Amino acid sequence: MGNILITGASGFIGSHIAERCVVEGHNVYAVLRESSSKEYLNIPGINFIYIKLNNRAEIVNKLRVIKSNIGKFDYVIHNAGITQAKNASDFDNVNFLYTRNIVEALYESGNIPDKFIFMSSLAACGPGDELSMKPITDNSEQCPITNYGASKLKAEKYLREQNKLDYVIIRPTGVYGPRDKDYFQYIKTILKNIEVYIGGKNQLLSFIHVYDLANIVTRIFNSNVVNTTLFATDGGTYTSKEFAGIVKSVTNKRTIKVVIPKWLFRAITYMAETISGLFGKTALLNSDKYKDLTSKNWSCNADTTFRLLEYKPEYTLHKGIQNTYEWYKTHRWIN
Ligand SMILES: NC(=O)c1ccc[n+]([C@@H]2O[C@H](COP(=O)([O-])OP(=O)(O)OC[C@H]3O[C@@H](n4cnc5c(N)ncnc54)[C@H](OP(=O)(O)O)[C@@H]3O)[C@@H](O)[C@H]2O)c1
Q: 94: CA distance to ligand 1 center in Å?
């Protein structure tokens, strides 16, 4: 059992990690902001701390108080992050600067954990080669194509430069499961009998169910894994057509296929971004999304993760989508 600090605990992935940590008997401190929802944190024994992650002095003060009560944190899971923003500097402000703030505050408050686990993303590495279509591996060049990916890579590089902190960087691919709102949109289109493709049907994709990701996080605690970057996938690679096939088979739906040409999708994202920009809002369809959805190769080899953690994910995509679909029905997200 250890003292765990987790940021972004109110979100989709964070709430599952927090829950798993509590179930495994850890003493969990969930970092929230005043506006954060606690809907998925109704977990007996969990502690809440309200900290503004843009305020290093405030983080230091709060960490000092906690340290005087319970001692230092054994593991810090820095999971808070944004996947959508208006521009590169907004991404940097949260995904990079908050990471630096927390690390510096840990140093300053004398709270250096045994491991600092950072939730990065496959986007930090960027997609795999589109000619060979070989999977992304530990040796792949790091070439993020989105502002989001670049901000995560910046935080990763900062962590690798630290010599007073043992870190583990996790790079999950697309994460789905109960409580997820992103793949939910896709499932809803299938439920409306529409199967949408951008460009073509042969994009290679990888996925991980959120339960398996939470499992990977807690397995890191007592493992020998340190100062390492780990990809997190379910071990499979799926074409976009296979993904649609799985969702259709689970939901028992027949569909009409709609292929949106890349040029048209680019025009849509450009318009959405311009209009949202005029109102100071972040567009859901934006240039990052365009680059993400039109990159052909998001296959990824996570064998190192499975070997080092002696763990193979339990959820195949079919089993995971089944579980997720049941959750959406039980929780009345769909009828
Ligand atoms: N979902 C995926 O497919 C995926 C894949 C790879 C990596 N990731 C990474 O996994 C992490 C969690 O993502 P998610 O999918 O669970 O997203 P999410 O549901 O939107 O959760 C994001 C969490 O970060 C917190 N957060 C965001 N901006 C913040 C800020 N300015 N100050 C303090 N807290 C802030 C949110 O707090 P509030 O509740 O207060 O907003 C929330 O708890 C992120 O770092 C993301 O980059 C996600």
A: 10
**Could you tell which of 6, 7, 32, 33 is best to mutate to test the pocket of ligand 1, judged by most ligand atoms within 8 Å of the CB?**
33
Give per-residue pLDDT as tens, 53-87. 999 999 999 999 999 999 999 999 999 999 999 89
Res 328: pLDDT = 98
Say how many Å lie between the CA of residue 256 and the centre of ligand 1: 33
Instruction: State how many domains the chain has.
Output: 1
Q: Considering the domain boundaries, does residue 76 fall inside one?
A: yes
Residue at 304 is within a domain = yes
Please give the number of the atom of ligand 1 that sits closest to the Cα of 179. Answer: 19
CATH number at residue 91: 3.40.50.720
**How many angstroms is it from 80 CA to the middle of ligand 1?**
5
pLDDT band at 278 (very low <50, low <70, confident <90, very high): confident
Q: Which two tokens stand for residue 185?
A: 């949109």
List Cα–Cα distances, 103 to 5, 108, 159, 188, in angstroms: 12, 9, 9, 40
Asked, for residue 291, whether it belongs to a domain, the answer is no
Query: Could you tell me if the CB of 220 is within 6 A of ligand 1?
Result: no
Give domain status of residue 155, yes or no. Answer: yes
* Domain limits for position 303: 3-178+206-233+299-315
Convert 54-77 to b/e letters by CB count within 10 Å (16 or more is b): eebeebbebbeebeeeeebbbbbb
